[in-house]
Structure prediction request, 659 residues.
Amino acid sequence: MNKLDHLPSKNILSLFMTCGFPTLSQSKKVFHELLSHQPDIIEFGLPFSDPMADGPVIQESSKIALKSKITTKQSLNLIAQLKKGSDKTAFVIMCYLNTVQKYGIQKFIKEIKNIVDGLIIVDLPFEEEKPIKNILDKNNIHLIKLISPMTDQKRSKRLLKEAKGFVYYISATGITGSNKLDYQEINKNVLALKKQTKIPVLVGFGIKSKKDVMAISKNTKADGVIIGSALIQKYFDLKMNFTSYIISLRKFIKEVKI
Amino acid sequence: MKNYSQPNTLGRFGEYGGMYVSETLMPLLLDLDQSYQKIQKDKKFHKELEDLFKNYVGRPSALHHAKNLSAYLNGPKVYFKRDELNHTGAHKINNCLGQILLAKKMGKTRIIAETGAGQHGVATATVCALFGLPCYIYMGSKDIERQKPNVFRMKLLGAKIIPVESGSKSLKDAMNEALRDWIKNVRDTFYIIGSTAGPHPYPKMVRDFQSVIGKEAREQILKIEKKLPDYLIACVGGGSNAMGLFYPFLNDKKVQIIGVEAAGKGPKTNQTAATMTSGTPGILHGSYSYVLQDNDGQIKEAHSISAGLDYPGVGPEHSHLKDIKRAKYYGVTDKEALNAFQLCSKLEGIIPALEPSHALAYLIKAFKNKAKGKTIILNLCGRGDKDLFTAAKAIGFDADE
Ligand SMILES: Cc1ncc(COP(=O)(O)O)c(C=O)c1O
Prediction:
């Protein structure tokens, strides 16, 4: 069974966090905290040296994780360990193609099979996805589609034809952590996408607060939200005090879980 | 190899190349590809570009028989393709003029670029001044430090320089930031990439604009020597001056092609930029090509005394030419390049940039007392003005400003 096929019908919450951030052992605690709130989806970011689609906050988290020398293997082991006892939350890995390619596509997919429900490869566009998608399909892992405001309807129709899991709608043209949200524009685009697919449409990029989450829920027909940079930013706001960080994550997630 | 016709419509040179970018950029790249295909058939565009090449850049660039260096080598007859005489001092301007005309055609109103040595930054700032477009240049803070004359040039030309503090603070990181800027400002911005790197259609487009170098050189050598050269030599950073020289000769099977990379402190050390001699295939900045990476696919920081070669990736077409063995690639150390830099200055009265000094170093190393009676064209793609302080420091000369 793929948990992404059984997402709730509204207010879906997906939380993004970088694996190995700030350190491998602390990262485990962070994910335990996230999982304890039973979000619908967790996105595990695999740190990459050159995350070209990410803003400064996620970049910094990758850099810090890599400083403590985390490997892809360790990230995958961490995800596998966390899987035990988290049967409410769908697991998604978000990464860059070189990480998967270097690990070995077959080997990577074999190791995440039965653990991970979806894979987002940020720099793998529709035009290049075929070889990987074929293997993922055989293993019941959904390759999640990103759609941006630059994607016109003709293109999104092609992209969504075989899409499974959910649609990751990038709410602003920009990198992760950008801050302008135009609800009218988002809603217009979400509605158009919903005409093209039955799977849920989640809005990501730039969602920072309970207010944003409520506004998306109220002003748009999106099925839920993805929060990433805002979760990581707190660590820096709290001057990297890990104990306070966990407490503030707890408070924040309670707020955004509507 | 007859009728070389790479890349295919998806931007593949053999298995290399492609378009590995996020969905925000993808529609834009497809649009750029379409516009580029259209403009290639546009006579007016070609006329405009030819006119700029002739009257603004000063093309064709000369083919100089380097007699003293040839005598020193006691080997082949060496010709320099003198793209260092171009306006702005390097080959980079060829590509920038092509791309800015395209940007204009596409109705873009803001130009961004990355730069390492600052040569591409200067060339971009120059064409932006000429065409009256605002210009933003991403440059690693380490490169800002070691290429000060070019930083000042860009400022004079009206460009805004955005220092990049991430990673190794050099070319790779500048390109990351430029790509992020582009993702943020997709609608009005044109990204002028300075080398045959990045996602399709850049490697093809930049090669095409630079191939004026090889076209001219082929005509010139046929006129002078009545035959094709035996060897071509060029330095390879991202690979644009090299592709520019090589491309028009690819179907001439007898012409041997040599690309020279920067091996920094040595190809077996961790301080190298010799991507094809020390790297493995991977994905960086939107294309599949050789890269310097660790076992986990993390991109390594490159090192070279030459800011223009200090890049852990390389254009996909070079990876293809290496694999099909149409071209051979070798590494040259900082030290060897510095020696060649001095030798060329003394022997020929031409102060080369540190980048082509790598090509010169390989020439000196591999052809001393060898290949008598053969001819070689070496792409002297840039002049050394920008490198005077770096070189003085490395050589131990006190050139304090
Ligand atoms: C003079 C010169 N040569 C070579 C290069 C390297 O680029 P490419 O390999 O694209 O020619 C540069 C880059 O800045 C340069 O300034």
